[in-house]
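Lab notebook page, bench 4
Experiment: in silico fold of construct C2
Operator: M.H.
Input chain length: 148 residues
Purpose: comparison with the prior construct
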Amino acid sequence: MSNAGNVSESIKIIDGWYGEPSESHAAGVLSILKLLHLDEATLTAASNIARTHGKESLTKLIGDESAKLLIGYRGLRQAQAKLVRNDGGLSISGQEEMLRKMLLAFGDDLRVVLIYLASRLQTLRWITHEKMEMPKAWAQEILNIDAS
């Protein structure tokens, strides 16, 4: 499967978990990151998180720096999707693996982790806005990973 196919599949899985449309999710993430007064490359990457283009197409479309940030974000989301798919939820070892991947992304570029965390915050906002009951597994995952 191509990289674009993997990304597309991850986006479908994430939409399936939360139900929030990808485009409105991207707009919410962008809004959160604007409040942090982040640079243009980060904002451009965030505004394009719903795109499923491959690396070369993304680079042509949004520039090298933004494409690298978006690819890094996708890596975290794909890792999350893979761990949840394999574990049926994030086990302790899955949570540790996700935290390890976040730290690796942090070492490469903190902005990747900021995009990821803004995405998680947007998901929580959407769940609250929709007055959905927060599934215990989601809440525990957020406590175990994002608060670590």
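Observations: The mean pLDDT is 79. The radius of gyration is 14 Å.
Next step: discuss at group meeting.
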